[in-house]
Amino acid sequence: FRREMVEADIVISSTSAPHTILRKDDVQAIIQERRHRPIFLIDIANPRDIDPACNEVDNVYLYNIDDLQSVVSSNLQERQREAEQAEAIVEREVGVFQAWLRGLDVVPTIVSLRNRVEEIRTAELHKAMARMGELTPEQRETIASMTTAMINKILHQPMSELRRRAVQRDSHVYSAVLRRLFGLEEKEI
């Protein structure tokens, strides 16, 4: 088997020999024949097949079952840390999703309020324009834009507050108040 070791880059040893079968001087000779190319020796036998002194030879990397167990333990600890981080990310994102979902509860109120206010704006705009007499299309557009901008500015704060409250558990109270204040029918929502 020493002949094959000259060609191999990784050697795994697992015999039932009662003593070491590969000594330091054997490995030194093999490394010389390999022209000092690195070799990895993995000893999973019990008792050990490879003399621990082999690890002292340059370009020889000896690992035994205990080394592998420590790697497994280290990897397990790292996976545990990663799992905890993943769990924290999932918890945070679930919270974000739940807040978004609760936010959907206020959408019908917002839509109904905006529709109601737009109905009022349009009706009042038609009345005002009828009383104003002849207006150019540009003047009509300016007045319509101005009323739309006013409505948007008036509704901005209540809508923003309702959206902000939507992520909390009391958003239904705010929605109910707005529906009552603006006379929004339940069927509109």
Your description of this structure?
This protein has six helices and three strands. It is mostly helical and 189 residues long. The protein folds into two domains: 2-58, no CATH class; 88-188, no CATH class. Helix 3 (65-103) crosses helix 5, helix 4 (107-132) runs antiparallel to helix 5 (137-166) and helix 5 runs antiparallel to helix 6. The model has no long low-confidence stretch (mean pLDDT 89).
Layout: helices, strands, pairs:
Layout: H1 2-7, E1 10-13, H2 24-33, E2 39-43, E3 60-64, H3 65-103, H4 107-132, H5 137-166, H6 171-181
Parallel strand pairs: 1-2, 2-3
Helix pairs in contact: 3-5, 4-5, 4-6, 5-6
Q: Please tally the β strands and state the result.
A: 3
Estimate what percentage of residues fall within beta strands.
Answer: 5-15%
The average pLDDT value, as a whole number, equals: 89
CA radius of gyration is 39 Å
Note the main attributes of this structure.
2 domains; 3 strands; 189 residues; 6 helices; mainly alpha; 65% helix
Offer a concise description of the structure:
The protein has 189 residues and is mainly alpha-helical. It has 6 helices and 3 strands; from the N terminus they run αβαββαααα.
